[in-house]
Amino acid sequence: xxxxxxxxxxxxxxxxxxxxxxxxxxxxxxxxxxxxxxxxxxxxxxxxxxxxxxxxxxxxxxxxxxxxxxxxxxxxxxxxxxxxxxxxxxxxxxxxxxxxxxxxxxxxxxxxxxxxxxxxxxxxxxxxxxxxxxxxxxxxxxxxxxxxxxxxxxxxxxxxxxxxxxxxxxxxxxxxxxxxxxxxxxxxxxxxxxxxxxxxxxxxxxxxxxxxxxxxxxxxxxxxxxxxxxxxxxxxxxxxxxxxxxxxxxxxxxxxxxxxxxxxxxxxxxxxxxxxxxxxxxxxxxxxxxxxxxxxxxxxxxxxxxxxxxxxxxxxxxxxxxxxxxxxxxxxxxxxxxxxxxxxxxxxxxxxxxxxxxxxxxxxxxxxxxxxxxxxxxxxxxxxxxxxxxxxxxxxxxxxxxxxxxxxxxxxxxxxxxxxxxxxxxxxxxxxxxxxxxxxxxxxxxxxxxxxxxxxxxx
Length: 459
Prior knowledge:
The chain is about 45% helix and about 15% strand. The chain is of the alpha/beta class and about 450 residues long. The protein has an eight-stranded mixed beta sheet, with helices on both faces. Strands 9-8-7-10-11-12 form a six-stranded parallel beta sheet, sandwiched between helices. β8, α10 and β9 (about 255) form a beta-alpha-beta unit. The protein starts with 7 loop residues before the first strand and ends with a strand.
């Protein structure tokens, strides 16, 4: 492979959510001559002390990224970052508190925003240090655009063959129903009632979210009984415990609890998508699917505006059931005024819905960073040695924690988020991109390590 340009590292935390889109970005960069390293974020970080200095594309600027950001800088990597969840927040102030950390933000050389709203939020952060903010959009949205939907055609056909006309319930209750219950950050209130007067923010959020959580659990058997011949697929958030939803189904034969592959084909194949404040509300809207926001409890403080407002909203179980009846009977429709309002809302939040793909815009940013910085830093030998030792020490700690039951670094949870992929499948996905877009004919994948791949041009 040709390696004339600066390497680019593109880690993926949640395989089903990000890997396809980040592989597409790697293909675009490889086509421009950049050798790319893609794969599991956890595995890449474990190996970071042995990987070449690069332009590193971070997935967020949260406090949890502070330590690895410091290691990357000491090793000589240039960090540019997006935020995979920047569009989904309770308030601007809460977003800045929870998802923008001073060390992680200040380690960046450039930022890539989903759209105008995300860019404005970063500029309002007290930690913003003046680096360029580019409204690139997110590669995950590229995967939903008409020109790339054929990538999922075989998956849509398979799902239709397996389930026929099915309903999809997407849940996002990881903070209440964690894969490891001891890691659940929001504890259940003792009684299902409004929060006490003067309750702090976290207590109020717990009361609100648990009310919605219970309403979804109650909905499942009712919906299953109302439409016994219609398969109902519950797709929990990657951080969630599936057993909770099996219990909610109560043995109903038409209920399936699954988290398989990218969500896009599931959205395209479904008759309707039921959610509350879930990313899939936005994704379903962009895809032209039918998102329905089930909002049995509402709060201007604790609800996520964007995915709910891009959906058909219902506010009790009876209205939800009526909406589903309409979908299955072919009577479901929104009016033109609602459609215009939703598109205007989307444009405030998401760039690259049309025109130049987000991956091309991000590749432009990478080229600009390479030109401005030579593609990498050159810290002194002592700094690099400290970075190497810090990286190895972190890896040792992670390996130790991987065997600890119910630890956030436990291998079972890591594999739950990134189950793994083999080299032939990575190349097969690149070839599918090539057939759809008429490009990438010389782009090849090679193994570096388990779940880490080099994407570049064949010599």
